[in-house]
Amino acid sequence: MKDIDTSHMSWDDWDEQIRPAPEVTDFDRVVETAMTRRGVLGSLVALGSGAAVMGTAMLKGTTAIADGHATFAFTPIPTFTDNTVHVPEGYTWRTVARWGDALFSGAPTFENGHGVDGSDLIFGENTDGMELFRVGDAEVIAVNHEYVNPDINLALADDAVPTADDVMTLMNLQGVTVMEVARGAEGYDIVVDSPFNRRIHHNTPMVLTGPAAGHPLLQTSADPDGTEVLGTMNNCGSGRTLWGTYLTCEENFNGYFGSTDAAAELPEGFDRYGISHDSRYAYELYHARYDISQEPNEAHRFGYIVEIDPADASSTPVKRTALGRFKHENAAMTIANDGRVVVYMGDDERGEFMYKYVSNGTYAEGGPTDGLLDDGTLYAAHFSADGTGEWRALTPDTTGMDQAMICIHTRMAGSAVGATTMDRPEWIAVSTTLPEAYCCLTNNSRRAPGFTNAGGDAAEPAPGTPNPRAENRYGQIVRWRPDGADHGAETFTWDLYVMAGNPVVGLGHYAGSDNVTEGNMFNSPDGMMVDSTGLIWIQTDGDDSNEGAFTGMGNNQMLIGHPETGEIARFLTGPSGSEVTGLMWNSDRTVAFVGIQHPGGTWPDGEGSVPRSSVIAVWREDGAVIG
Ligand code: FEO
Ligand code: CA
Ligand code: CA
To answer: Which parts of this chain are annotated as the region Disordered (predicted)?
Structure first.
């Protein structure tokens, strides 16, 4: 399974090792090429009214920062490289839930770890997307546990083969936690034994619905009907429905499947999705369904969006195949002007696509919701260099695939309609105040002449598009405005809200757009939420070496962007080694909950302890609304 030390790697770094970058770049040549394209943003400004607004807005934002007239209710903080969390003056943070904290009174005591017994009664590892729900008087958080780090979670030597108990422990530490939280003496705490508390993990029964349910490719020996499945995995970003349920998004599911037979033939489509004979955690040694030489269809049952009712701990989670199968980042639901449900979604892989789903039925508050996430049309985004774009429908006519196959091999359907190859679409957020939406394109180290995605679609540097830069190490945020101010529309205009970069050491477009300054620079935007006032909260998952191209950027962080002025200010920095991911607010927006994933060192417990991914609460010391 391992020839290299993968134990501390983030999932993306691990994937890079398994699927190494082709020999593409002579870095000097790439930089030179990019510099000759000086004016990428300038040329966008010349195209279309939306782009012109962006150019003006960025200048205003820069001026506001230079004049010290920041529009945010906090003093931006500098970068940090230490091993703790920093927030602005007048704000405080505390942990709410750490890996290993008890959800139930029968949970094992955490002593720098735990065994398999009771590992499904505790808060899981590597927290990611989350949402807070008001259920009666209770505040209930649903939060993802994306993956595990075996050497921390099991204290396994690098070359050790996990035991069956080890594998079960890892299965229990991932998935989703649903937990009630309440104000305590020092912030917010888990309400142990709350009837809402629940762990959903890799063996939790759930059902498959939508066009792919029951398809022969979803049938296994344990489930010949192809409608029931155990577990949800690599739960990355999140979403919430208009009707108060939680959406958890299965991202890098490919890495969980392996083969005990190195000669086993890989079924069609496995290459496009990165499913190979090598798994990350060796599940296949103990569970035949993860062994592609025995149950090749099991992998077709992951890569979906799963709906969970946070108000009913006995409810069965539902995998909604109508929303497509790919490396789902998050699910940003909104509503079209005619009442149809719209869900924006990114496929986080280099050169893959952005999607949206539009239901056939309509939603009305308090009305029936059956079928709204089972019956609709998927679209993939195409961006043109003139500042316009279109959502191309994935239908049997446009793809040559039937509806079930569109939902199982969604990437191939996107390729069939010529969707735009993107720089790793991570979180999408819909504005709460303006008819627009945003997507973090986190970075793309491989974008270079000759690069394609696994389907052979060209993913070269494309000036004038949302993906203009070669060897894009910093990332950008694309914004689109649907025509007619209707998220149900099939056409839109677009611009770049920000192109991250380093104005100190970056050359040409690697310096970033005008609203990136020495005082707010960052790399790899990933998590994103828009608050009720329309401010854009941006979280990063990038290189925190603070060296070379990343000099001066410090640890990963959370910033707040103004949608109209373009101003961006740093609000929080995470501990060294960590990614800041997952954000929501309590009911009155006086407390923000923020996820800290894969911290390094000994955060948060200090000397002698293992690092523990945690959800923290951040609030203003005067109790006022945050932001
Ligand atoms: Fe799990 Fe694409 O982040
Ligand atoms: Ca992410
Ligand atoms: Ca990321």
So the answer is: 451-471
